[in-house]
Amino acid sequence: MEAVRLPDEAAFRAFRADCEAERGWLSRYSREGVAVWGQPPPPGGDAAVQRVKGRIHMPDVPAETAYDVLHDTEYRKKWDLNVIETHEIARLADNADVGYYAWKCPKPLKNRDVVTLRSWRALETSYVIINFSVKHPKYPPRKDLVRAVSLLTGYLIQSTGPKSCSLTYLAQVDPKGSLPKWVVNKSSQYLAPKVSSASSAQTSCLKYTSWKEEHNGDAKPWLHPEQNQLPYMALSDLSLQHASSLENIDESSLMEAKDEKGDTSGSEN
Question: Of 22, 53, 75, 147, which has fewest CB within 10 angstroms of its CB?
Fold first, then answer.
């Protein structure tokens, strides 16, 4: 059982550098303040385990608000259109916890879930939230979902002014399963929590302050650890989740769903 360690300062700074980097990333989309890039794996790697990065500029959202929105699990259930179920399981440190997240995949693929160690930190004028997959003894893979593996996923929130910020989402997720070529060709954004969620986040950030005032407005345990009521869990009770130890679900023969007009789509379950 491979030991789990909390990310250190160097890990957060390395993630921020990856979010800011341009070299090695291929542009997939750029319009109206939203950009998406892909980074194929090195030769000989698993074709499904590529990295995807998205960035959205939010001119009317302070960085602090975006950070709160990404942390607030109850609010996430309102704006994240991909979520099936999400909750924190236990805390590991003042800036780290272990949690569960299940999300929708495009039909006819099976939906996915992950158990991850999440950690966060403020760095000068930016915030970083990162996660990676772990094994939790009380959260084994479910029969109705495919257990995916987050190799490294997270957010970089950077202040661009008193009331503006940019939000960068970077994900490297092994979706598991023997996948059809149409999924692999359309990039891993179909099998990671979607970059398009950032657009939903922007709209929701504008509504967050008024929502929070009516929903336990003073409770922000990600900023005030003394408010955290989750049970403590020892790091030694967790182990790293490797893709090789999970069952491969054969989805290679599935055809892409079509809408009523006959167009293929990544429609969600």
Answer: 22
Query: Please, what are the domains in the chain?
Result: 9-214+235-242 (3.30.530.20)
| Exposure string for 54-93, b = 16+ CB within 10 A, e = fewer | bbbbbeebbbebbbbbbbbeebbeebbebbbebeebbbbe
Question: What span, in angstroms and rounded, lies between the C-alpha atoms of 265 and 269?
Answer: 12
CA 236 to chain centre: 24
Q: Please state whether 143 falls in left (phi above 0), alpha (psi between -120 and 50) or beta.
A: alpha
Q: Which amino acid is at 32?
A: E
pLDDT tens digits for 214-235?
Answer: 999 999 999 999 999 999 999 9
pTM for this predicted structure? 0.84
Strands 51-58 and 149-161, how do they pair? unpaired
